[in-house]
Amino acid sequence: MMMHFLYAVRFRNTTGLGKFEIMSMDAKARAAKVLHIYLTHSKGSTEPDALLVHIHRLMDTIICSKNMVEGHIGCLTDQVLCYLLMRPNNCFLMANRFMVICARTAHCFFDTISHTACLKLGGHKSYAPID
Question: Which end of the chain has the least Cβ crowding within 10 Å, N or C?
Answer without folding.
Answer: C
